[in-house]
Structure formats: structure tokens, C-alpha cells
Amino acid sequence: MPKNKFYVVWVGKQPGIYTGWGDCKTQVEGYNGAKYKGFPTLELARAAFHDNHEKYLTRDLNAPKKIVCDNPLVGEPLADSICVDAACSGNPGILEYRGVDTKSGAQLFQQGPFAEGTINIGEFLAIVHALAYLQQRNSDWPIYSDSRTAIAWVRKRSANTKLERTVKNKELFNLVDRAEKWLHNNSCPNKILKWETEYWGEIPADFGRK
């Protein structure tokens, strides 16, 4: 993931865009309710600064929630599993994705922000990232996603997106190309399962920006 070089302060001593963590820290340290986040490029930082900070800041989802489902045909999600989700502020827009431990809600990985992405691409990359993450740990845990489209793309080993490649989303498409190549070169025992939002509520990896 690109290293953050620019920091947006929406709420702080002096809201603005700062170069480097040191300058940002001066504006938010000790400030009650400060809202800030780092970005890899000035372009992304500027877009975020003039937007609603709630699109970029996640609520605390780490507190585990007990899921009870009274439909015997659906049952309850497997606790020993990974959930993935993506967030995109537009179509296309600034994209992020992440994976969490289903039982504890602990974040296992997060990538982004990426310019000019789509939610389906983010969901696709999140599943492949989870597969690689579990392979490295010799784990057969299943993966939950609430995106039927992304699940289908992974099974076909191809991201069937209509998004055009541009200079701005070059980095993102590099990841897509790598993900497709990885899928063709690796086989995994992990099941990819549909998260039943209707019965279980929002997926634990949800960014909480709806």
C-alpha cells in the first residue's frame, strides 16, 4: 500500500491539508473530536478535504456482535472465517477495501485509497487478498463477501469490469492484473461464501459509510 504523504484535517486546530505526519499531528494532538486521515497523493487529499469526512472515516466496528438467525435454512455465519468489504465514494470514486476476523471484528488488512475505482473491483481485490492472506497462514477458513458479482469474478478468475483504464487508476489496475494472475497460478481450499445481509445484518467488514 502506498505510504501516506498528505494528511487531511477536517476537524482540528486549523483544518487543511498537511505534508507529513508531523505537521498533521500538531493540528490534531490534544484536540477533542479531531477528524483526519492520510492519503498517498495530493490529488486524493484535495478531493477528500472538500468532501464529507464521514465518507473516509470508519466507525468502530471491532466490538463483536452476536448474530442470531431464526431461519433454519440460512443458519448463522461460521465464526472462524474472514469477512471482506469495500467502500467507494462514487462510481468511479476513491476506493478502499479491507478484511476482518468475523468473530472478533479485528481488522486483518486494509488497502487504499485508490483513485477512480468501483465497488465491484474493491470487493474482488478484497476476496483475492483474503485468499492470499489465508494461504500464507495455511488456513482453510472460509471467506464471506456480500457481493455476488465479486464472488463470480473470483470463481471465473477474471474481473469483468467495464471501468476504463486511465492514468489515475493505473495503480489499481496493476493490482487487478496481479490478482487475476494469482488466481490462475494458485488453488485454495477456502470456500467463498455469500454474506446473508437480510438475515445477519451488515457484514462485519462494512466501512459504515452508508
Main beta-sheet strand count, sense and barrel state: 5 strands, mixed
DSSP summary, beta strand count? 8
**SSE succession:** EEHEHEEEHEHHEH
Helical segment count? 6
Percentage of β-strand residues: 15-25%
Radius of gyration from the alpha-carbon trace, in angstroms: 18 Å
3D shape: globular
| Range of helix content | 25-40%
State the low-pLDDT regions, or none: 59-71
Estimate the mean pLDDT confidence: 86
Q: Report strand order across the widest sheet.
A: 6-5-4-7-8
Derived from helix and strand composition plus strand pairing, the structural class reads alpha/beta
Query: What's the N-to-C terminus distance?
Result: 25 Å
Gist of the model:
By secondary structure, the protein is an alpha/beta fold.
Textual characterization of the structure:
The structure is a single chain. Helix 3 crosses helix 4 (148-156) and helix 3 (119-136) packs across helix 5 (170-185). Mean pLDDT is 86; it is low at 59-71. The chain is 30% helix and 23% strand. The strands form two sheets. Strands 6-5-4-7-8 form a five-stranded mixed β-sheet, with helices on one face. It has a three-stranded antiparallel β-sheet with strand order 2-1-3, sandwiched between helices. The chain is built from six helices and eight strands. A hairpin with a 4-residue loop joins strand 1 and strand 2. It has 210 residues and is of the alpha/beta class. The protein is globular and about 50 Å long.
